[in-house]
Design goal:
Mean pLDDT: 88
Helix content: 25-40%
Distance between the termini: 71 Å
CATH superfamily: P-loop containing nucleotide triphosphate hydrolases
Strand content: 15-25%
Shape: globular
Keywords: Hydrolase
Number of domains: 1
Organism: Russula earlei
CATH topology: Rossmann fold
Bound molecules: adenosine-5'-diphosphate, magnesium ion
Protein name: P-loop containing nucleoside triphosphate hydrolase protein
């Protein structure tokens, strides 16, 4: 064999070897041997649990979670709390204007007391870190431990041990289908999941995986919120579907709960620590788009309320 033929042959072999992790290319993925899991528990002092998730980052999960929680309180008079399970990128302290609120106090039995703003008690790993700029660089086991503590070591009655607790806990999930959704689904009874996506195919593809992961964990999917579905031009009030039409979302096979338009005010009110649902009820500066957003959020909230 000539040297070039030898090189070609070895390159050919390199291109056709099994993948480096040795995972089979076809069939079911290998199952890791597991120790038996503890039975699922309820979250203390919480009646219902709703997860807001996606699979994809940056699509508006935290924004939807905060506004859903606020609208459940404002329109349905429910006692609602917010739990931020995004360990690596917690947004709830910022979105609720609680970044400078200090550390949570503890009950006499050592449980964390949620911090409250706009009538919403909330808990986040962001309240427990030394500063907002400090990144969390933890391995899986640390993440699982943190998730367990956030699920079971928070007293949602607040500082009053005779308090009624929560009707609904809205959980803001991180992107992806890793440790956190797994721990949540294995440890806790979740009454339903609201999936959030933008209309791009690249986002919908990840949402499809997120839906499949929740289904594997037997978490019922309430439906899909299509966020940033269109932009209303302020001069002509015409909807522009910047990221594609909403039709693609139908292929996910879940109920479309509503479409929220893309609006600068949603972003600026979030950055200012105000849920847009609260901001828009005080001053409607966003015109037709603001009205569409509000109507869609009311519709989404009503369907979630009825589903759980
Ligand atoms: N409908 C919307 N219109 C305008 N900006 C939005 C809208 N929804 C979300 N955003 C902005 O997009 C960014 C990402 O949203 P966020 O809720 O943090 O996403 P995720 O939790 O999925 O990572 C934030 O700056 C937020 O204010
Ligand atoms: Mg988020």
């Amino acid at each position: 064999m000539t040297s070039s033929a030898r090189r070609l042959f070895s390159t050919w072999r390199a291109l056709h070897h099994d993948n480096p992790l040795g995972l089979p290319k076809r069939g079911e993925p290998p199952v890791m041997p597991r120790r038996s899991l503890p039975p699922k528990r309820g979250i203390p002092n919480v009646k219902r649990v709703v997860a807001v998730a996606s699979g994809k980052g940056g699509v508006g999960k935290s924004t939807v979670a905060v506004n859903l929680a606020y609208t459940l309180t404002a329109r349905h008079r429910a006692r609602v709390g917010l739990l931020d399970l995004d360990i690596f990128g917690p947004s709830i302290p910022k979105l609720l204007g609680l970044e400078a609120a200090g550390e949570p106090h503890l009950t006499s039995s050592g449980a964390l007391i949620p911090l409250t703003n706009h009538g919403l008690p909330a808990m986040s790993i962001g309240f427990l870190l030394p500063g907002p700029e400090r990144p969390v660089t933890w391995r899986g086991l640390m993440v699982q431990k943190a998730v367990q503590q956030l699920l079971f070591d928070v007293d949602w009655r607040g500082a009053d041990p005779d308090g009624p607790g929560l009707d609904i806990l809205v959980i803001d999930m991180p992107p992806g289908t890793g440790d956190v959704p797994l721990s949540l689904g294995q440890l806790v009874n979740v009454d339903g999941a609201v999936m959030v996506s933008t209309p791009q195919h690249v986002a919908l593809a990840d949402v499809r995986k997120g839906i499949a992961a929740f289904q594997t964990l037997s978490i019922p999917i309430i439906g899909l919120v299509l966020n940033q579905s269109c932009f209303f031009c302020p001069s002509c009030n015409t909807p522009h579907h910047l990221f594609g039409s909403s039709d693609a979302s139908r292929s996910l096979g879940v109920k479309l709960l509503g479409e929220l338009p893309l609006m600068p005010d949603v972003s600026t009110s979030g950055d200012a620590g105000l849920p847009y649902a609260l901001f828009s009820s005080c001053s409607n500066t966003s015109g037709a788009a603001g009205y569409r957003w509000q109507e869609a959020m009311f519709g989404i909230t009503k369907q979630v309320w009825e589903a759980i």
